[in-house]
Design goal:
single chain; about 140 residues; alpha/beta; 5-stranded parallel sheet; globular
């Protein structure tokens, strides 16, 4: 990705799709080391040439917005912690550009038990509902 070489990535995407992957998680890693123009072209190439939806996995809100703006279809944003700050940031983009949001069943720290994971889910459901985001647009990652 740092070198802008798309062929190897597309080959891997095609192999994963052929093996049954229904969604491909594209994590750009250290986002400052990858051209945003390359990120846009890669997302579009995977959707059009491989034919699988992409889970957009970036941390920088500005980069995420740029990619959501050009994504050809209903994006899956990976991921948000179940905190007001994270949900507000990514949820706002979700409302503006559409798509779905993967929510981690955690707040700032990884929960030690199921009860804490449930609390995180309940918070995320309540918070996003107040934002006007339907629960059918949320996917929870335990």
């Amino acid at each position: 990705m740092e070198k802008g070489e798309m062929d190897l990535i597309l080959k891997e995407a095609q192999d994963q799709a052929a093996a049954g992957a229904q969604v491909l998680d594209v994590n750009f890693g250290l986002e400052s080391a990858v051209s945003q123009d390359f990120m846009e072209k890669l997302l579009q190439a995977i959707v059009y040439k491989v034919g699988t939806p992409v889970s957009i996995d970036v941390q920088t809100p500005e980069v995420l917005e740029r990619l959501m703006r050009v994504y050809p279809g209903r994006s899956l944003v990976n991921s948000s912690k179940a905190t007001a700050e994270d949900l507000d940031r990514r949820g706002g983009l979700l409302k503006r550009y559409g798509g779905m949001l993967m929510v981690l069943c955690m707040e700032d720290d990884v929960p030690k038990d199921l009860a804490d994971r449930k609390k995180a889910i309940e918070f995320a459901l309540k918070h996003t509902k107040a934002m006007g985001i339907d629960r059918t647009r949320l996917v929870f990652d335990p």
